[in-house]
Amino acid sequence: MVDRFRPVSIEELPSHLILEILCSGRLSAIDLACLELTSKTFGGSHGLYPFKFSSLVDFAAFQLCASHIIYSKTSLNSQKELYDRCGANWKRVLRFLQSVEQSSEMVETSAGNMQITTGKYHTLLISNSSVYSCGSGLSGVLGQGPETQCVAFTRISFPPLARVVHVSASFNHAAFVMQSGEVFTCGDNSSSCCGHSDTSRPISRPRLVESLKGVPCKQPASLRSLVKILKYEKMSQVAAGLNFTVFLTRQGHVYTCGTNSHGQLGHGDSQDRPTPKMIEVLGNADPVVQIAAGPSYILAVTVNGAVYSFGSGANFCLGHGEQHNEFLPRAIQKFRRKGIHVVRVSAGDEHAVALDSNGFVYTWGKGYCGALGLGDEIEKTTPEIVTGLKNHLAVQVCARKRKTFVLIDSGSVYGFGSMGFGSLGFLDRGVYDKILKPRILDTLKTHHVSQISTGLYHTVAITSSGRIFGFGDNERAQLGHDTLRGCLEPTEIFVKEDSSQENIDPDI
């Protein structure tokens, strides 16, 4: 009887059980690599898999890749190309897929789950479900009540037990997604972009968007096979435009509200919407997996790799080869014709960037200051591949005012465009210089960067160890430092935990 309950070492477990544990989806590619080095049980051959796999961990990595939503939706040729670009290493393929998945959401660090987002003169941070803000926020975008400036990261108050999983605050308002799927907003609501009826004053603290509670789930047939049918839709992502907001549900539906002067809400007209309304055209297409909002336009990526754009056609940001406004979502045909499976996009002020399933980067729009990374300042009316990055495996793209950052799978960062206020982070260049081609950011080379976000003239990065570094303009303390006017070199930003601060109800 005693022997039945004796401790069992991992080496004694059946190989098929070990494989099941490894394929549970709870382990990262780095976890698998570490396990492979610790024991012959993980690194050896057990006859459970074809000889082309070098170890049990290698086979587990392949299984995880095969079931991953990005990899499984790409063509066989694309899958082979990614495998070859990863040096025929399934663990590296898995690391790429997992890094891309986290790039527009929360990233896992050794200090916990984190997400960074930057705006004009402010920065917001999620750290282990709590949200912090710093910088200037005259319109209430900081979510700190009557406070118009925070010189250091200060925790934003939410209702008890609320856990924030996604945030967007690119312009004058902020939107937060809770683990429950609920959405809170704060900031300038004069255009109804926060989804509240009160437009006479800013929303100074996060407030629940009541109109999104109990949104009926109208699932098209193509979606039923991909997700479990739920009674109500819940949000998974938000994107804040200049005076409008985009909401993405877990079922892949897109809702918008706010100003619609350029058709950026995607409903086929220019009528403003005071409360979120579902975009019917996208509701009848493949499920959307990622959204991005520029000043007056929206990009939406579907599960099958198509990119839809709509809103203002200025600066060729829509990627259709013309500058007409699009009042309904329209697929970017160049991606479709070339069989390019896009997985992530970023919407800049005057240009846009896309990342495909093989780690290649594409840019289009105005080329001011080299923001497209193509070696000149010439505008591109449709997406063009950034040849200077073809030998690298990109996992995140980030565009803003005349500059672009690209994070590659090794944790290094490449930047190009305007050096304005030092926000590209190159110490040997002046603040008015232009970087026309992708260049590695040497000042962050000693760190493994997991996520990067750039605002008007400042940039903030999160490392795999959970450290936060910022550089560029700090005139309004948007880098979380009280005494510095600017930081040409990446400077660490610290979050002061305030255990005495209690959650309070948002103002109403």
Automatic annotation (TrEMBL):
<feature type="repeat" description="RCC1">
    <location>
        <begin position="181"/>
        <end position="251"/>
    </location>
</feature>
<protein>
    <recommendedName>
        <fullName>RCC1-like domain-containing protein</fullName>
    </recommendedName>
</protein>
<feature type="repeat" description="RCC1">
    <location>
        <begin position="252"/>
        <end position="304"/>
    </location>
</feature>
<dbReference type="InterPro" id="IPR058923">
    <property type="entry name" value="RCC1-like_dom"/>
</dbReference>
<feature type="repeat" description="RCC1">
    <location>
        <begin position="359"/>
        <end position="410"/>
    </location>
</feature>
<dbReference type="Pfam" id="PF13540">
    <property type="entry name" value="RCC1_2"/>
</dbReference>
<feature type="repeat" description="RCC1">
    <location>
        <begin position="411"/>
        <end position="465"/>
    </location>
</feature>
<dbReference type="InterPro" id="IPR009091">
    <property type="entry name" value="RCC1/BLIP-II"/>
</dbReference>
<keyword id="KW-0677">Repeat</keyword>
<dbReference type="InterPro" id="IPR051210">
    <property type="entry name" value="Ub_ligase/GEF_domain"/>
</dbReference>
<feature type="repeat" description="RCC1">
    <location>
        <begin position="305"/>
        <end position="358"/>
    </location>
</feature>
<feature type="domain" description="RCC1-like">
    <location>
        <begin position="288"/>
        <end position="496"/>
    </location>
</feature>
<dbReference type="InterPro" id="IPR000408">
    <property type="entry name" value="Reg_chr_condens"/>
</dbReference>
<dbReference type="Pfam" id="PF25390">
    <property type="entry name" value="WD40_RLD"/>
</dbReference>
